[in-house]
Predict the structure.
Amino acid sequence: MNMRSYIIAASVLLAAASPALGDVLSLTRGEVLNGMLLDLSDGVVVFDTRLAGQVVVPVSQVRSITTNQPFVVQLNDGKRIEGRLAGSGGETRIVPSSGGEGEVVQWATVESITPVRASLRQDTDLPDAGPSSLDISWEGGYFYRWGHREYDAAFTRLTLRSRAEAFDFRSDSFLEISSEDAFPRLFRSASEWRFPSTRALQPELGFEIERDLDEALKFRGGLNVGLTRVFMDEPDRLFEATGGLNIEFEHYDAELFWRETGSGLRNRFAELYYGGDRRRIENQDINMRLRMRLRRAFDRAVLTQAISLYPSLTEFGDLRGRSESAFQMPLSSQLHFRLHLLVDYENEPEFKRMDNWRTSIGAGFEWDF
């Protein structure tokens, strides 16, 4: 077993042994979620699990809640109680900062809860930063890839997620860290804006940027428009599907192949074969864009899966697909260990020497700011 295998094995054991920090939401079905309590009003609890994202559950499914920060609890009869929520067994108490046993919360009598700092802002008419929020996550790790050639490299990933009344925003950027002259060898960035709607379908707008020299792709840029339907959004599971259009521009350079053959004779034949107009290719395509997202939360881990298909509308029969899977385990409230599996497929590559399949596996540590 090499050093990387020891590190991964040790990380898995540490993930299983380390307790998760933050607020705790216990449900009547047995699930226990760690994260941050965002809101409780109109009989609904909004809880950010960080691992599984934001979940919404009715108070009838809440067994208990424990928080690190104090809240102002507004009751239906007009009474206000300030303190930290402390869950024990099947009940929750409001424990004041001065200490003591606290008062038991009856969820049916609660009108709303507000963090103490937000409550002070309302009482003193201080400027409000608005309902939006921004989450930032950074990940560093190592991955192994095989396709046109096999190699391993370090990587870094930056994820931004913002929620506001008008839209939800998410951006994910992946960069391979390599010492080669053609840096970056692999770069992918995707951003999307989703506009919440009271209807079943939610409009979505986004763009993608990609560079993958392993398939002679120097640049790919795409604009996405579509509609998303959320079929299931529960604390422990998510299922949604998106359909729309993808308009993209691609620039390929076949010279990237013969630079790495390792044989002067093969390089010469490759240069003759791809010479002239076949050496560099530029495409402008219009594709359908079909995406499915799944999430399954367990007691101490979350499994996510995203499958995207791009059937071409301008080159009949061409199909490009991508599957992204991740298994995430918390080491603390902010640090997580992640395992990745990424599979790319293209039924009609631009050059004959390109493989239809490209696969990457990796592991990394993610920090939530």
